[in-house]
Write a structure and sequence with these properties.
The chain is mostly helical. It is built from 7 helices and no strands. Helix 2 (about 15-40) packs antiparallel against helix 6 (about 135-150), helix 3 (about 65-85) packs antiparallel against helix 5 (about 105-130) and helix 5 (about 105-130) packs antiparallel against helix 6. The chain is elongated and about 50 Å long.
Amino acid sequence: MEAGEERIRRELGLGRLSWVLIILQGFLGIGAIVGGGALIIDPSGSLLNMPNSLLEHSPFGNFLLPGIILLLVLGVMPIVIAISLIVPFHWGIGGKLNLYPDRYWAWTFSLYTGFALHIWIMVQVYWIQNVTVIHLIYFAWGVVIQVVTLLPRVQRRYSK
């Protein structure tokens, strides 16, 4: 275990803001695993009442590849982040992709999740050529993830 992870483990309690971030990541991950899993199980989209016409302006013939991306990027990754924000662990690839070496890799990946969610929603809106309330909610969710991640108390909690 590296020094940063040891320091984070020694700290008593996570604090409310860290729990807010963990809950935001966790619920995002659970929802995306369910949605992505449903699209993988039924690439036609009918399991989620999504007509194929939603893909008309996209490069996809069915929902399989979007389902896989959703499951992995916005499902599995936020769950891993949420768990590692509670129980820090060393992850080599996470360390290498961490643009903020003075911060624990999961803190940085929390920012990445916000960006990934924004990109997902913007691409979806572009291909669907329609904006719905759910798009606005998830875009705001990404903003909230990033704002909470960038709060000074949260940054201090996850600094090495």
